[in-house]
Task: inverse folding
């Protein structure tokens, strides 16, 4: 867990756990991180946890509010991680973090409205390589377009269109970094209208163009333009 690729894996697992409200995946990921912290130095450990906090704030519904409530007794709130000076203190922070997020995920699972959003997200994930519309997804899970749109706005950290786009960008990044594919091919696979629009959306979300995405496969096979 000392390299960038391993940290990216932790990141992906956390995002997937929040997308599907998978408590087992979340706790397993944090347990592995906690085990790694036992043999790491304080600076590296705090850096890892800062990545976890970033994912929680950006991917879990009301993530920052949940964190603030969990660490409300500390003057620095959840940012108190940056004042930890021992591994044992970091592990105590991790324990509190894990407990508060699990409670939030359990509450979401038991929320009937969130179950509808979760069903929609599952459908989107299973059909991410297709062109997806609000009307198609709402019909697939048996609710109206307006109701599903409203639920995404109230029960999810992203609206419907932003969620679909964000997930397509994630898949695009995965394909570009691991597969021998050109940008226009990835654009077609993900159901974008054209590669120009895909590149525009991709850069807005990631800060880099598709062609600048680091390739982790065999460099001699790279076809990126």
Result:
């Amino acid at each position: 867990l000392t390299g960038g690729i391993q940290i990216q894996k932790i990141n992906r697992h956390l995002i997937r756990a929040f997308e599907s409200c998978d408590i087992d995946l979340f706790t397993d990921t944090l347990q592995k991180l906690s085990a790694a912290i036992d043999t790491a130095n304080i600076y590296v450990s705090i850096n890892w946890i800062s990545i976890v906090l970033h994912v929680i704030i950006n991917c879990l519904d009301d993530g920052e509010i949940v964190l603030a409530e969990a660490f409300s007794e500390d003057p620095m709130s959840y940012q108190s991680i940056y004042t930890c000076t021992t591994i044992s203190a970091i592990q105590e922070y991790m324990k509190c973090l894990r407990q508060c997020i699990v409670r939030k995920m359990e509450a979401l699972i038991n929320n009937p409205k969130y179950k509808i959003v979760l069903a929609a997200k599952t459908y989107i994930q299973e059909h991410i390589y297709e062109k997806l519309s609000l009307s198609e997804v709402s019909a697939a899970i048996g609710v109206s377009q307006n109701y599903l749109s409203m639920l995404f706005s109230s029960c999810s950290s992203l609206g419907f269109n932003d969620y679909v786009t964000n997930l397509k960008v994630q898949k695009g990044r995965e394909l570009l970094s691991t597969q021998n594919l050109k940008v226009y091919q990835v654009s077609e696979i993900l159901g974008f209208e054209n590669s120009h629009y895909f590149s525009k959306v991709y850069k807005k979300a990631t800060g880099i163009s598709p062609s600048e995405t680091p390739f982790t496969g065999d460099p001699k096979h790279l076809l990126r333009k």
Observations:
- The chain has two domains: 4-109, 112-221.
- The mean pLDDT is 89.
- The CA atoms of residues 169 and 204 lie 10 Å apart.
- The first helix runs from residue 4 to 20.
